[in-house]
What we know:
By secondary structure, the chain is of the alpha+beta class. It has an 8-stranded mixed beta barrel with strand order 18-19-21-22-23-24-25-26, surrounded by 4 helices. The chain has a 5-stranded antiparallel beta sheet with strand order 2-1-5-4-3.
Amino acid sequence: MNFKITLRSFLPWFLLLVLGGTLIVLYHLSSRVSDHDRIQVESKVRQMQALDTDINLDVLRLRYRQLRHYDSVAGSTRQMESLLDSLQKDFEKLDLHSALSRAQNEWSFKQTGVEDFKRQNSVLVNSLFHFVNLADQMSSSLNAGASGPLPAALVHSVTEDVLIFVNGQQTRNAAPILEKLKQLEAQSVGKAEPFATRGWLMAAHGRLIVNNHQPVQVLMRRISSSVFSAELEQAYNEYISAYNQASAEAENYRRLMAIFSFMMIVTVMLMILRLRQTAAELERSHTLLNNVADHLGEGILSFDARGMLNFVNKRAEILLQRDKAELIGRDMTGMLPDVGVTGSAFQRALTAGQSFEGEEWLLRSDGTRFPAVFLGGALPSVERQAFGGYVTSFRDLSTHYEAQARLRLAARVFDNLSEGMTITGVDGLIESVNPAFTSITGFTETEAKGHTPGALLSSGMHDKAFYQAMWEALRHDGKWQGEIINRKKNGETFHEWLSITAMRDDDGHVMQYIALFSDISERKQIESHIHHLAYHDPLTGLANRLLFTDRLENAMRQAHRTRRPLAIVVLDLDRFKQINDSLGHALGDILLKFASQRLLHLLREGDTLARVGGDEFALLLPEISSHADVATLASHILREFETPFDLGGREVFTSVSIGISAYPSDGETPEVLMKNADVALYNAKDSGRSAFRFFLESDSENSLERLELESALRHSVAQNELRLYYQPQVDARSGLIYGVEALVRWQHPLLGLLPPTRFIPLAEATGYIDTLGRWCLQTACRQLVAWQQAGIPIRRMAVNVSARQLSDSDFMNIVFDTIQETGIHPGCLELELTESSLVDNPERVFGLFALFRERGIRIAIDDFGTGYSSLSYLSRYPVDVLKIDKSFIDVLGSAAEHRSVVQAMILMAHAMDMGVVAEGVETEAQSRRLGELGCDLLQGYLYSRPVPPENLVRLPCVVEIEG
Length: 963
């Protein structure tokens, strides 16, 4: 019965397969020929006939020298070969294997003739070319009356006969011409050169022309009379005949295709109707099964024989948090955490097809796990298969597990809690304690049970009212927490943070009290230490600024009541940053400790010493008698620091600068007093350091002005307030501009245009010189590039660099980046430095100079002669230019020794391959004397003051160059 059902269901598919195969065969037979193939064949035939005509025409043009190369013939020949091969394949599709043979043979014959023609015609054309050239040379020599020539009549006759023979339309007898050529050759023997050689060559080329002319003519006629096109046309007619016959057969096959297609459509329609009936029956059964399964309270999973899911009910989707589309077709991988591990009992039962009843963990889509109880078994076999599948139901056990987990957690928390816990009854007697209680107090649970916590742990440091308030809060609020001091079993007291909660039943009656406490003794000690750190300097142990300010406020209130003045002294270690940078921060910290110890020895009882900054100390002196007392103390401090410090076997000298302000004369608030003391300290540093100064009102005004100027300066670049002026450097010999020096000005919004002396020292002191210097460097380089692009031949831009900039680790990169960004040639940039720049950190300066010189950047030493270096000292550095200071130029004509000094500077600089620039040239006499002394460049008011860039181009020394 099963066999009949299977055969009946298979029969439509077999019929469909037979009909499909038949249609494929008929389609292949019907598509054997097409109009496209015929059109392609006809196109190829016509193209080949056109190529044949082109070859004939090209041969004629080559013969009569209208065409001088053979590329066209060669290209047509290759194209003909390709088309002939392609056409042969088209003919073979219709079994016309030999239809093209005659045309192919004719083409081979013609192709051979073309190759012969190309070879012989090349000889003919080449000989004709040489013959004509030789004839022209002979004629020119004869006309010029050259000695020892050949007979002119013979040369002219031979030339005329050969050319007429070649160009004649009728065939002529070649024998007379060959005879004359023989005579010409004989006459050439013994003649003077070059007539002998020319005559012999002319006769030889003439014979080649006469002998090859006739064969070339024959080959040309043979090629032109080829019947290749006619044979090709005959073959094409045979193709058309075969094509028409094949087209008729293809039409018959198409009719058969239509019949079989109709039969196939009918078969498919019958199969579709049958499948729809079967699908409807399956859908009804499937819907019923799904409705039953989806309304169950347990998840159901069904697997096929391969272990892949083929059914999942709604409950399973909810429990697993996965859609049915995500689950169907997958195995249990990703749902069982123990897949692949021998401990997964369900996986083993599923693989073996055995019944299973037990618990497993399942994974949801978000990665969380939940416990489930499984009940599953194998499905009956289907159609002789040993294993037909597997089905199982499962139920979530999370609620049951959570209840158990809470109980276990409560027990673990009670036992492992770091805080002590006691549980007492309503009567206050201890019922249970955790291990932490024993660890903190020393009492075991056995010792604690039956006692009240107060009787067991009371330290006696709290009165009765304290405990009454505690119980009152428990009765009213149900909880109490606070700090309490209790006693351990060994009698030691400890600080405890205690929290008590009343546990009530459903009716609101108190059942038990739970107390949780922790030992906070260590925290109290830490708080005390933190309080000390908050008010003291961790390095020196002195009071910090916060504690100093607090004591100053108290002292000022006391001074106000007693009407006794007080003073504050601010001290700053001189050169501490240099010591810290050179010796390291560790030794710098030791120096601060030693300094604080020396200061402490000088204090009176009641004085306060504080460290309020890195190397800054403040001293509070309450109830002074007069300023003389403070001055005496300040003098003692200065003398104390005259003794060097011993830092690990190294002697270090440092001094202090001291600023003093007094209450109430110099201020009535701590802030004002500290500020005025700082002003006095700054004044002491300006006076040369290692000094003390009392605050004066004028100092405050100057300090305020300096502060305002510093604040405005920090915005000068962003506000576009800086200006660069340029002073020309003129060639001493020609009087024309060679380079310029860039000089910065500040267009202050209120004070107007400020010279560099007003703000450059401030910029160096505040560190703003780095930003200002970078702006000057970039602006000057861009200006020089703009001038040079405009045709103004200024060759060099000198830019001033401070010692502070040289100490910047990024200065070298700033210079190189500026050159790359602006496009200035490195040789056009000159960095000007003062002599003092060479003294600070000479190794670093030397390294920078060497790197700049490698890039072609020039180095100039400004104000030479005013510092403390010499030319021999400078010779160690790669310096390019020395700028003689204006002070030497001013006295150049006053005495002979002054002239000798300048001359010595110039000679020694030139000896070391350095250029020389004289600054401050203001008179023609100075210019003339400097030129006589060999100075290279001159700079000063004689030529121009520093001017804006737009005014520089109108100066006489620049205009003359442009002219």
